[in-house]
Amino acid sequence: MQRRALLAGLAAAPLARPALAQSSAGGFPDRPLTMVLAFPAGGGTDVAARPLARIMEKYLGQPIAVVNRPGAAGEIGFTELARARPDGYTIGFLNTPTIVTIPIERPQARFRLDDLLPLLNIVDDPGAIWVLPDSPIRTVADLVAEAKRRPGQISYGTSGIGSDDHLAVLALERVTGTKFLHVPFAGGAPVRTATVSRQIELAVTNIGEAIGDYRQGLFRPIGQMGTSRWAVMPDVPTFREQGFDVVEGSMRGLAAPAGLPRPVLERIVVAAQRAVADPEWQALATQLALPLRLLGPDEYRAELVAMQRHYAALWEKHPWRE
Asked: Is 130 in contact with 169 (CB distance < 8 Å)?
């Protein structure tokens, strides 16, 4: 109920001037759009983005083709989005922290945060560590004890070097003096496959990505990395509650190439806000248990800039090269 009220409230406020946004956008859009996702089909970004794109279509009056461009922890997809023409016909999803950490860790990266225009953040998904149901590890303390017994041997999968999943385990290593074996993948879906097939011992993914497997009894969380418990999984304690100061997660939201004309920006933002207020989306968001956090363009950008500064300072002290 709280999420539905939040969606409705945030979506209603900017709708005082949708006519202006549409009339001043020069007939935009008059052809189909493309939505670029930097991670594979079946992952947390894909699961949220595809239904959103479908619902946005009725408010834009044009189809939206969703394309997955996974690889290099998101760099391939983010670069494609950043280098697209800033005309509104190519939009995409940004994922934190990789949208800010990739340029920090890779000076040769072909995009920067300033190359992108944040439009509307939608999801803020806490990280979690998951094990198979028959694992003897039940708590973070259990995991730490096992890691001290087998240093560098417990394998964990993430969506790539510098991802929130990877940085979360590095933070756990720092606060506990442990060492794990990192196995990076192209996204959350292959991490799931590798864990279920017992190729790796731990899946480190966001709550929203693995809650379906949790509900089916395939995964069991040992803790989540939000600042507080999540109403959908109230029995899962945070890492902080268990005595380990690790907070990490991933924001996911809409963006476009920098330089987008203001009327086109407003047209897309209004359509996205209407889509997330749509009863169909609200039902899907509840069904998928998406951890929602809506931020408009200015708030969204401010959050990303602050995050960029945070990780730049962290890189200076604890670079996460492998």
From this structure: no
Q: Which domain holds residue 208?
A: 126-224
99 falls within a domain: yes
Would residue 133 count as lying in a domain?
yes
Give the side-chain half-sphere CA count within 13 A for 14: 21
Element of type H or E holding 93: strand 90-95
What is the structure's pLDDT at 18?
A: 38
- Is 71 in contact with 41 (CB distance < 8 Å)? no
Which tokens go with 307? Answer: 């995050």
Are 256 and 92 a contacting pair, CB within 8 Å? Answer: yes
Return all residues near 25 (Cβ < 8 A) that are at least 6 apart.
Answer: 88, 261, 263, 264, 266, 267
The H or E element that residue 165 is part of is helix 164-176
User: Within a domain: residue 241?
Assistant: no
Q: Write the CATH number for 278.
A: 3.40.190.150
Nearest-CA neighbor of 248 among 138, 129, 144? 129
Q: How do beta strands 292-295 and 181-184 pair? A: unpaired
Does the pLDDT of residue 171 top 70, yes or no? Answer: yes
Per-residue model confidence (pLDDT) at position 152 = 97
How far apart are alpha carbons 228 and 247 in whole angstroms? 10
pLDDT digit string, tens, across residues 20-76: 334 456 789 999 999 999 988 888 889 889 999 999 999 999 999 999 999 888 999
Do residue 176 and residue 277 come from a single domain?
Answer: no
Summary mean pLDDT of the chain: 90
Query: What is the pairing mode between strands 116-131 and 202-206?
Result: antiparallel
